Amino acid sequence: MFRVSYSDTAEGQRWSLHGRLAGAWVQEMRSCWKYAREQAPLARAVVDLKQVTFIDPSGERLLAEMRSEGAELIVAGVEHHHLLQTLDNHPSPPANGSVKEGGNK
């Protein structure tokens, strides 16, 4: 199961992802991301991953793309250290993206 909460405010775009970013959900998330970014390409984008329970390789590639487009990833907990290392070692390193650790599960 996968769920996305999205809000578009004066502060920018905020995405909260919940569940498994895997399989067909990755392409669905990519489509939503591209559409929202086309509508407001200069808006600050924050992606909260604290409630994500699993990310497959295609989901990792999507997150790397999002970071390279300037998304700020919010993570918490030990389970995300592998994700951060994977994204940091991605073949196309992000240019403007950043990662913040925040909150506790």
Summarize the structure in words.
With 105 residues, the chain is α/β, with parallel strands linked by helices. It has a single domain, classed as 2-Layer Sandwich (Transcription Regulator spoIIAA), CATH 3.30.750. Helix content is 34%, strand content 35%. The chain is built from three helices and five strands, in the order ββαβαβαβ. The protein has helices at 24-39, 57-68, 81-88, and strands at 2-9, 12-21, 45-55, 72-75, 98-101. The longest helix is centred in the first third of the chain and has 16 residues, at 24-39. Residues 92-99 have low confidence and may be disordered.
Cα-based radius of gyration, to the nearest Å? 13 Å
The quaternary state of the protein chains shown equals: single chain
Number of E strands: 5
Spell out the helices and strands N to C: EEHEHEHE
Determine the CATH topology: Transcription Regulator spoIIAA
Estimated share of beta-strand residues: 35-45%
**What's the story with the biggest beta sheet?**
5 strands, mixed
Question: What is the level-2 CATH architecture name?
Answer: 2-Layer Sandwich
Overall average residue pLDDT: 84
Regions with little confidence, pLDDT below 50 for 5+ residues: 92-99
Tally of individual domains: 1
- In the sheet with the most strands, the strands line up as 1-2-3-4-5
How many helical stretches? 3
Q: Specify the CATH class.
A: Alpha Beta
Q: Per the principal axes of the C-alpha atoms, what is the gross shape? A: globular
* CATH homologous superfamily identity: STAS domain
Helical percentage? 25-40%
Give the termini distance in whole angstroms.
Answer: 19 Å
**What is the structural class?**
alpha/beta
